[in-house]
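Could someone model zinc ion with this protein?
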Amino acid sequence: MIILGIETSCDETSAAVLEQTKNGIQILSNIVASSAPLQAKYGGIIPEQAAREQIKAIIPVIQESLQVSGYSGQDLDAIAVTEGPGLIGSLLVGVETAKVLSLVWKKPLIPVNHLIGHFYANWIGENIPTFPCIGLLVSGGHTDLVIFRGRGKYEYLGGTRDDAAGECFDKCARLLGLPYPGGPEISKLAEKGQDVYKLPRPMIDSRDFDFSFSGLKTAAANLLKENSEMSKPNLAASIEKAIVDVLVAKTVTAAQKHNVNQIIVAGGVAANQKLVDRLQVAVDSLQLKTKLHIPPANLCTDNAAMIAAAAFFQKPIKNPLILQADPNLSLASLDYQASKL
Ligand code: KG4
Ligand code: ZN
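Reply:
Sure, complex below.
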Protein backbone atom coordinates (compact mmCIF):
# COMPACT_ATOMS: atom_id res chain seq x y z
CA MET A 1 0.00 0.00 0.00
CA ILE A 2 1.36 3.43 -1.00
CA ILE A 3 0.23 6.76 0.52
CA LEU A 4 1.12 10.33 -0.41
CA GLY A 5 1.12 12.55 2.71
CA ILE A 6 0.70 16.33 2.62
CA GLU A 7 1.46 18.61 5.59
CA THR A 8 0.99 22.39 5.56
CA SER A 9 -0.16 23.28 9.09
CA CYS A 10 2.33 26.07 9.80
CA ASP A 11 5.54 27.24 8.09
CA GLU A 12 6.67 23.92 6.60
CA THR A 13 5.37 22.66 3.26
CA SER A 14 5.93 18.94 3.10
CA ALA A 15 4.98 15.96 0.93
CA ALA A 16 6.04 12.36 1.44
CA VAL A 17 5.44 8.97 -0.14
CA LEU A 18 5.35 5.99 2.23
CA GLU A 19 4.89 2.30 1.53
CA GLN A 20 3.56 -0.34 3.90
CA THR A 21 4.87 -3.86 3.34
CA LYS A 22 5.11 -6.90 5.58
CA ASN A 23 8.29 -5.32 6.98
CA GLY A 24 6.39 -2.26 8.21
CA ILE A 25 6.07 1.33 7.02
CA GLN A 26 8.97 2.72 4.97
CA ILE A 27 9.67 6.25 3.75
CA LEU A 28 10.28 6.48 -0.01
CA SER A 29 10.49 10.27 0.00
CA ASN A 30 9.95 13.05 2.55
CA ILE A 31 10.42 16.56 1.12
CA VAL A 32 10.23 19.57 3.47
CA ALA A 33 10.41 23.22 2.34
CA SER A 34 10.44 25.66 5.24
CA SER A 35 9.72 29.36 5.32
CA ALA A 36 11.25 29.52 8.83
CA PRO A 37 14.35 31.46 7.64
CA LEU A 38 12.00 34.10 6.21
CA GLN A 39 9.88 34.15 9.38
CA ALA A 40 13.07 34.43 11.47
CA LYS A 41 13.59 37.96 10.17
CA TYR A 42 10.41 38.98 12.00
CA GLY A 43 11.12 37.00 15.18
CA GLY A 44 8.13 34.69 14.72
CA ILE A 45 5.51 33.49 12.28
CA ILE A 46 3.35 35.94 10.34
CA PRO A 47 0.36 33.75 9.34
CA GLU A 48 -0.42 35.58 6.10
CA GLN A 49 3.18 35.28 4.95
CA ALA A 50 3.37 31.60 5.94
CA ALA A 51 0.24 30.90 3.84
CA ARG A 52 1.66 32.70 0.81
CA GLU A 53 4.86 30.65 1.05
CA GLN A 54 2.76 27.47 1.28
CA ILE A 55 1.03 28.35 -1.98
CA LYS A 56 4.36 28.88 -3.74
CA ALA A 57 5.87 25.63 -2.47
CA ILE A 58 3.05 23.10 -2.50
CA ILE A 59 3.13 21.92 -6.15
CA PRO A 60 6.95 21.70 -6.50
CA VAL A 61 7.18 19.86 -3.16
CA ILE A 62 4.51 17.29 -4.16
CA GLN A 63 6.14 16.84 -7.58
CA GLU A 64 9.54 16.26 -5.98
CA SER A 65 8.18 13.79 -3.44
CA LEU A 66 6.64 11.68 -6.22
CA GLN A 67 9.74 11.91 -8.39
CA VAL A 68 12.07 10.82 -5.56
CA SER A 69 9.74 7.94 -4.63
CA GLY A 70 9.70 6.63 -8.20
CA TYR A 71 5.89 6.47 -8.24
CA SER A 72 3.29 8.55 -10.06
CA GLY A 73 -0.04 9.85 -8.82
CA GLN A 74 -1.76 6.88 -10.49
CA ASP A 75 0.27 4.40 -8.41
CA LEU A 76 -1.03 5.75 -5.09
CA ASP A 77 -3.54 3.91 -2.93
CA ALA A 78 -4.56 7.04 -1.01
CA ILE A 79 -3.75 10.68 -0.28
CA ALA A 80 -3.42 11.83 3.35
CA VAL A 81 -3.54 15.45 4.45
CA THR A 82 -3.29 17.41 7.70
CA GLU A 83 -6.79 18.76 8.46
CA GLY A 84 -5.74 20.65 11.64
CA PRO A 85 -4.82 22.06 14.06
CA GLY A 86 -2.67 24.85 12.69
CA LEU A 87 -2.85 28.20 10.94
CA ILE A 88 -6.02 28.36 8.84
CA GLY A 89 -4.37 29.97 5.79
CA SER A 90 -1.60 27.37 5.76
CA LEU A 91 -3.93 24.42 6.38
CA LEU A 92 -6.23 25.46 3.53
CA VAL A 93 -3.39 25.18 1.02
CA GLY A 94 -2.75 21.51 1.86
CA VAL A 95 -6.41 20.53 2.29
CA GLU A 96 -7.64 22.11 -0.95
CA THR A 97 -4.68 20.73 -2.94
CA ALA A 98 -5.29 17.24 -1.53
CA LYS A 99 -9.00 17.45 -2.42
CA VAL A 100 -8.19 18.37 -6.03
CA LEU A 101 -5.61 15.58 -6.39
CA SER A 102 -8.00 13.08 -4.84
CA LEU A 103 -10.72 14.00 -7.35
CA VAL A 104 -8.46 14.18 -10.39
CA TRP A 105 -6.50 11.00 -9.66
CA LYS A 106 -9.61 9.27 -8.21
CA LYS A 107 -7.80 8.31 -5.01
CA PRO A 108 -9.32 8.04 -1.50
CA LEU A 109 -8.64 11.00 0.81
CA ILE A 110 -7.62 10.49 4.46
CA PRO A 111 -7.68 13.53 6.79
CA VAL A 112 -5.15 13.35 9.64
CA ASN A 113 -5.01 15.30 12.91
CA HIS A 114 -1.56 16.90 12.96
CA LEU A 115 -1.05 15.98 16.64
CA ILE A 116 -1.89 12.32 16.03
CA GLY A 117 0.44 12.48 13.03
CA HIS A 118 3.31 13.55 15.29
CA PHE A 119 2.81 10.41 17.42
CA TYR A 120 2.70 8.21 14.31
CA ALA A 121 6.26 9.14 13.38
CA ASN A 122 6.99 6.39 15.92
CA TRP A 123 5.28 3.79 13.70
CA ILE A 124 7.72 4.27 10.80
CA GLY A 125 10.37 1.58 10.33
CA GLU A 126 11.11 -1.27 12.70
CA ASN A 127 10.81 -1.53 16.50
CA ILE A 128 7.42 0.12 16.61
CA PRO A 129 5.58 0.71 19.92
CA THR A 130 3.05 -1.68 21.38
CA PHE A 131 -0.06 -0.78 23.39
CA PRO A 132 -0.67 0.44 26.00
CA CYS A 133 1.74 3.36 25.87
CA ILE A 134 2.12 6.81 27.35
CA GLY A 135 2.44 9.57 24.75
CA LEU A 136 4.16 12.90 25.32
CA LEU A 137 3.57 15.49 22.60
CA VAL A 138 5.88 18.50 22.78
CA SER A 139 5.60 20.95 19.89
CA GLY A 140 5.42 24.67 19.25
CA GLY A 141 1.74 24.88 20.12
CA HIS A 142 1.13 21.79 22.27
CA THR A 143 2.37 20.01 25.36
CA ASP A 144 0.09 17.04 26.02
CA LEU A 145 0.24 13.72 27.85
CA VAL A 146 -2.05 10.92 26.71
CA ILE A 147 -2.38 7.21 27.30
CA PHE A 148 -2.97 5.04 24.23
CA ARG A 149 -4.76 1.85 25.29
CA GLY A 150 -5.05 0.55 21.73
CA ARG A 151 -5.77 1.87 18.28
CA GLY A 152 -8.69 4.28 18.47
CA LYS A 153 -8.59 4.23 22.25
CA TYR A 154 -6.79 7.02 23.93
CA GLU A 155 -7.34 9.14 27.00
CA TYR A 156 -6.11 12.64 27.53
CA LEU A 157 -4.15 12.87 30.79
CA GLY A 158 -3.21 16.54 30.79
CA GLY A 159 -1.65 19.40 28.91
CA THR A 160 -0.31 22.89 29.19
CA ARG A 161 -2.46 25.56 30.81
CA ASP A 162 -0.62 28.36 29.02
CA ASP A 163 2.54 28.25 26.88
CA ALA A 164 3.66 25.01 25.21
CA ALA A 165 7.22 23.75 25.79
CA GLY A 166 8.27 24.77 22.26
CA GLU A 167 6.65 28.18 22.72
CA CYS A 168 8.63 28.62 25.93
CA PHE A 169 11.86 27.78 24.08
CA ASP A 170 10.88 30.24 21.31
CA LYS A 171 9.94 33.09 23.68
CA CYS A 172 13.05 32.63 25.85
CA ALA A 173 15.19 32.58 22.69
CA ARG A 174 13.73 35.91 21.71
CA LEU A 175 14.65 37.31 25.16
CA LEU A 176 18.20 36.13 24.52
CA GLY A 177 18.26 37.77 21.08
CA LEU A 178 18.27 34.40 19.28
CA PRO A 179 16.40 33.78 16.01
CA TYR A 180 13.23 31.75 15.45
CA PRO A 181 12.76 28.80 15.91
CA GLY A 182 14.28 29.16 19.35
CA GLY A 183 14.52 25.55 20.55
CA PRO A 184 17.56 24.49 18.52
CA GLU A 185 19.20 27.90 19.13
CA ILE A 186 18.85 27.70 22.92
CA SER A 187 20.16 24.15 22.79
CA LYS A 188 23.23 25.19 20.79
CA LEU A 189 24.00 28.11 23.12
CA ALA A 190 23.39 25.93 26.20
CA GLU A 191 26.25 23.65 25.15
CA LYS A 192 28.65 26.49 26.02
CA GLY A 193 27.03 27.14 29.41
CA GLN A 194 25.99 25.55 32.67
CA ASP A 195 22.78 25.31 34.63
CA VAL A 196 23.71 27.85 37.33
CA TYR A 197 20.68 30.15 37.46
CA LYS A 198 17.76 29.35 39.70
CA LEU A 199 14.60 29.03 37.62
CA PRO A 200 11.22 27.54 38.61
CA ARG A 201 10.05 24.07 37.53
CA PRO A 202 6.35 25.01 37.15
CA MET A 203 3.84 22.38 38.35
CA ILE A 204 6.53 19.70 38.70
CA ASP A 205 4.98 18.51 41.98
CA SER A 206 1.33 19.04 41.07
CA ARG A 207 -0.65 15.82 41.35
CA ASP A 208 -2.00 16.06 37.82
CA PHE A 209 -0.48 15.87 34.35
CA ASP A 210 -0.93 19.51 33.47
CA PHE A 211 1.94 21.82 32.57
CA SER A 212 2.58 25.56 32.72
CA PHE A 213 5.58 27.24 31.14
CA SER A 214 4.68 30.94 31.05
CA GLY A 215 6.06 31.56 34.58
CA LEU A 216 9.40 30.08 33.56
CA LYS A 217 9.68 32.56 30.68
CA THR A 218 8.77 35.45 33.03
CA ALA A 219 11.37 34.31 35.57
CA ALA A 220 14.04 34.22 32.84
CA ALA A 221 12.97 37.72 31.68
CA ASN A 222 13.21 39.04 35.26
CA LEU A 223 16.69 37.56 35.72
CA LEU A 224 17.83 39.29 32.52
CA LYS A 225 16.26 42.59 33.62
CA GLU A 226 18.09 42.47 36.96
CA ASN A 227 21.43 41.71 35.33
CA SER A 228 21.79 42.38 31.63
CA GLU A 229 25.47 41.38 31.83
CA MET A 230 24.67 37.81 32.89
CA SER A 231 26.08 34.85 30.97
CA LYS A 232 23.69 34.06 28.13
CA PRO A 233 25.05 30.52 27.61
CA ASN A 234 24.45 29.83 31.32
CA LEU A 235 20.92 31.24 31.11
CA ALA A 236 20.23 29.12 28.01
CA ALA A 237 21.49 26.00 29.85
CA SER A 238 19.33 26.86 32.89
CA ILE A 239 16.20 27.37 30.74
CA GLU A 240 16.76 24.12 28.85
CA LYS A 241 17.35 22.19 32.08
CA ALA A 242 14.19 23.60 33.73
CA ILE A 243 11.97 22.67 30.74
CA VAL A 244 13.50 19.19 30.42
CA ASP A 245 13.19 18.52 34.18
CA VAL A 246 9.43 19.13 34.10
CA LEU A 247 8.82 17.09 30.92
CA VAL A 248 10.84 14.11 32.18
CA ALA A 249 9.28 14.12 35.67
CA LYS A 250 5.66 14.23 34.44
CA THR A 251 6.16 11.63 31.69
CA VAL A 252 7.86 9.12 33.96
CA THR A 253 5.22 9.64 36.68
CA ALA A 254 2.47 9.02 34.11
CA ALA A 255 4.11 5.73 33.04
CA GLN A 256 4.49 4.61 36.67
CA LYS A 257 1.01 5.64 37.74
CA HIS A 258 -0.62 3.80 34.82
CA ASN A 259 1.77 0.86 35.04
CA VAL A 260 2.70 1.21 31.37
CA ASN A 261 6.09 0.16 29.99
CA GLN A 262 6.09 1.89 26.59
CA ILE A 263 6.62 5.63 26.20
CA ILE A 264 6.31 7.45 22.88
CA VAL A 265 7.51 11.04 22.45
CA ALA A 266 6.68 13.31 19.52
CA GLY A 267 6.78 16.91 18.26
CA GLY A 268 9.53 19.41 17.49
CA VAL A 269 10.87 19.62 21.06
CA ALA A 270 11.49 15.84 20.95
CA ALA A 271 14.39 16.77 18.63
CA ASN A 272 16.11 18.14 21.75
CA GLN A 273 19.05 15.86 22.57
CA LYS A 274 19.05 16.75 26.30
CA LEU A 275 15.39 15.69 26.52
CA VAL A 276 16.13 12.44 24.69
CA ASP A 277 19.14 11.62 26.92
CA ARG A 278 17.43 12.54 30.20
CA LEU A 279 14.29 10.56 29.34
CA GLN A 280 16.45 7.54 28.49
CA VAL A 281 18.27 7.75 31.83
CA ALA A 282 14.97 8.14 33.73
CA VAL A 283 13.36 5.25 31.86
CA ASP A 284 16.37 2.97 32.45
CA SER A 285 16.06 3.59 36.19
CA LEU A 286 12.43 2.43 36.33
CA GLN A 287 11.70 -0.96 37.86
CA LEU A 288 9.22 -1.87 35.16
CA LYS A 289 11.35 -2.64 32.07
CA THR A 290 10.31 0.38 30.00
CA LYS A 291 10.95 1.10 26.31
CA LEU A 292 11.32 4.65 25.06
CA HIS A 293 10.38 5.50 21.44
CA ILE A 294 11.49 8.84 19.99
CA PRO A 295 11.65 9.42 16.22
CA PRO A 296 14.85 10.72 14.58
CA ALA A 297 15.04 14.56 14.80
CA ASN A 298 13.87 15.12 11.18
CA LEU A 299 10.67 13.20 11.92
CA CYS A 300 10.04 15.12 15.18
CA THR A 301 9.66 18.52 13.53
CA ASP A 302 6.81 19.04 11.06
CA ASN A 303 6.93 16.67 8.08
CA ALA A 304 4.51 14.82 5.81
CA ALA A 305 5.93 11.33 6.46
CA MET A 306 4.26 11.29 9.88
CA ILE A 307 0.92 12.30 8.31
CA ALA A 308 1.12 9.47 5.77
CA ALA A 309 2.18 7.05 8.53
CA ALA A 310 -0.93 7.84 10.60
CA ALA A 311 -3.13 7.41 7.50
CA PHE A 312 -2.22 3.70 7.16
CA PHE A 313 -4.32 3.19 10.31
CA GLN A 314 -7.32 5.33 9.33
CA LYS A 315 -10.25 5.07 6.94
CA PRO A 316 -10.76 7.47 4.01
CA ILE A 317 -13.69 9.89 4.08
CA LYS A 318 -16.58 9.02 1.78
CA ASN A 319 -16.75 12.35 -0.01
CA PRO A 320 -13.46 14.29 -0.33
CA LEU A 321 -15.36 17.48 -1.16
CA ILE A 322 -16.76 17.80 2.37
CA LEU A 323 -13.34 17.96 4.04
CA GLN A 324 -12.77 21.28 5.82
CA ALA A 325 -9.53 22.51 7.38
CA ASP A 326 -10.04 22.82 11.14
CA PRO A 327 -7.50 25.07 12.90
CA ASN A 328 -8.83 24.17 16.36
CA LEU A 329 -8.60 20.36 16.46
CA SER A 330 -7.06 19.13 19.71
CA LEU A 331 -6.22 15.91 21.49
CA ALA A 332 -8.50 16.84 24.36
CA SER A 333 -11.49 16.83 22.02
CA LEU A 334 -13.37 13.65 22.90
CA ASP A 335 -15.25 13.67 19.60
CA TYR A 336 -12.02 12.65 17.97
CA GLN A 337 -11.38 9.68 20.18
CA ALA A 338 -13.48 6.86 18.82
CA SER A 339 -13.59 7.55 15.11
CA LYS A 340 -9.95 8.01 14.27
CA LEU A 341 -6.37 6.87 14.97
O1 KG4 B 1 6.29 20.06 15.92
P1 KG4 B 1 6.89 21.32 15.42
O2 KG4 B 1 7.90 21.24 14.31
O3 KG4 B 1 5.79 22.32 14.96
C1 KG4 B 1 4.57 22.43 15.62
O4 KG4 B 1 3.67 21.59 15.35
O5 KG4 B 1 4.48 23.32 16.49
O6 KG4 B 1 7.55 22.04 16.69
C2 KG4 B 1 8.19 23.27 16.59
C3 KG4 B 1 8.77 23.61 17.94
C4 KG4 B 1 9.36 25.01 17.98
O7 KG4 B 1 8.86 25.65 19.14
C5 KG4 B 1 10.85 24.76 18.08
O8 KG4 B 1 11.54 25.77 18.79
C6 KG4 B 1 10.90 23.44 18.80
O9 KG4 B 1 9.83 22.69 18.26
N1 KG4 B 1 12.15 22.70 18.57
C7 KG4 B 1 13.04 22.43 19.55
C8 KG4 B 1 14.14 21.78 18.92
N2 KG4 B 1 13.86 21.68 17.59
C9 KG4 B 1 12.63 22.25 17.40
N3 KG4 B 1 13.01 22.69 20.86
C10 KG4 B 1 14.06 22.30 21.60
N4 KG4 B 1 15.16 21.70 21.08
C11 KG4 B 1 15.24 21.41 19.76
N5 KG4 B 1 16.31 20.80 19.25
ZN1 ZN C 1 3.88 19.97 14.57
